[in-house]
């Protein structure tokens, strides 16, 4: 969830990820055998001195290597009638992970970003947070980047357009996360492009969107989070596709207060997967497909199905995102692990109103080729990784170590080895930091 809160009662100060491309060919038979042989990896936390990140973080924290330079893009940019216009989306660079993560706020640079369009006109509306960066392999300089961004709007910034079906109707709109009467946001996912290593960006359009009919309104939506939408993404490139892992917060169909069913809502949430051809990133809108239960067949603005193994059963406290009692996983951060030879997913857990949750979880997937059969859905049941009672934990990610091996391999938060540094945000404190390293065992 993305909010910039400046009053002390909440202190929710919120704010990319380099994409690891893997091209191993495989067959359904080989992958079925791989699932049967897969032994869930073991992991242990190694307590360390606190490693503070020195600037504003409100998103998945990730980075990209451009030559011998590691670059990160945290923060928020754009119009927001609730929290105010933001200009915190900036980048820092260095020669290794520790150097970049230790960068003082004063050393961050603001890139050139597209201006918000006039209300009612095509273009960029609302605020954006870079969550993932895909580095175009066709550019040997490494400077061509596609940023996958989380975008938030309100009926005020994106009023309903009956001709396109885009935008929102300010009627029975739920409340958002403030101490005053303000509206809930709707999240979408879009794409920007840079050809100069991240110094300037051009908006290319939307990746995924949930439209007005799927918004969950009063009197049912009392979570003080989102009215609906898709957001908090993490992405990985496999072969010719970019696979997007994201939070699904809308109703899985047309919302009607008279027939609303919380179990139906919960069944359509919360971590889902979509994909788009990498060659379509220059003009993404309408090109992505969501997983529909059998394949990537649902349209970019249609109803897909979440990863079943990542859903929280009702018997274990699971429920819809619009309910203050509903429990669900959110905020995926996905990486390929060279040592384990499998995918690793970090995620948060919501267990109360206003995005409250004090636990972080981890899951694994043995299939390098996500496009074969239902490989993309083959995630292990999430295991508890960290709990900090009394706190609110958001945005977990595994980050490279400052070791010779990690530097030589140019590891990032989406490609790692046997050991990694765990970062997450104490949202109640407004601080992003690392208290642990994570060591894996096969």
Verbal overview:
It is globular and about 60 Å long. Mean pLDDT is 92; it is low at 3-33. The chain has a single domain (21-441), classed as Tachylectin-2, Chain A (5 Propeller), CATH 2.115.10. The chain has 442 residues and is mainly β. The protein contains 4 helices and 24 strands. Helices cover 6% and strands 36% of the residues. Strands 1, 5, 6, 8, 9, 10, 11, 12, 13, 14, 15 and 16 form a 12-stranded mixed beta sheet that branches.
TL;DR?
This protein has helices at residues 28-37, 97-101, 262-267, 404-408, and strands at 21-22, 42-52, 63-66, 69-72, 77-78, 86-87, 92-94, 127-135, 145-153, 185-194, 202-208, 226-238, 241-248, 271-277, 289-291, 296-299, 328-337, 342-350, 359-365, 383-387, 393-399, 415-416, 419-426, 431-441. By secondary structure, the protein is mainly beta. Strands 1, 5, 6, 8, 9, 10, 11, 12, 13, 14, 15 and 16 form a twelve-stranded mixed β-sheet that branches. A five-stranded mixed β-sheet has the order 20-19-18-17-22, with no helix packed on it.
